[in-house]
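Hi R.,

Here's the chain you asked about this morning:
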Amino acid sequence: MKQSTKRLFSMVIALVLVVAAFLIFFDLTQPTYRDIQAIKGQAMGREEFIESKKVAIRQVQKLIQSFTDDLELQNAQAAVGLSFPTEPDLPSALIQLNGLIELNNLSVRSIAVSESTPTGKNTSDNRSASSSSSFVRPISKVIFNLELTGTYEDLKNLLRNIESNIRIFDIEQIGISPQIKPGQNVYQYSLKVVTYYQGQPK
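And the predicted structure, written out as tokens:
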């Protein structure tokens, strides 16, 4: 066989081998490439799904936090309303005082109730402040004058319970009379108890 024929034959074989290699390469890699692309698409879809769920969870958490904050605010407002109401609410105040008196084994001889108007200094500063903040509620008082009978220990317990009561009560005056009968630990007491409420804005 001539040398030129051998070279041509070897080139043809090399070309066939190259074409075969390309065919094998594409036949083997194309399905794998398509599978990889499909897996990437699925992964991206999962990531988008997870991210959307994270956004939804954050929104739900914000709603829950907002609801919790509103609930805490409502509870705080309710507690303030019980301690410092926006009206005299005499029945509730009387029930609380009477309950504390009975709890501490004291007897009620008399109860007198009166209200006092808001007090304050009528200075120019106060007038300018009231004109700039017309929604500020003045503080008004309800005064209870109590005549009670009981032991000294019961009176001390009553005063302690009044200090920790949900509604604000201040003891402004205390009077103690001698023992009702000599040798008995029973006294007569006169108490001036003051509670507060928010009046109407000026």
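The beta strands are 107-116, 139-150, 169-176, 187-198.

Let me know if you need anything else.
M.
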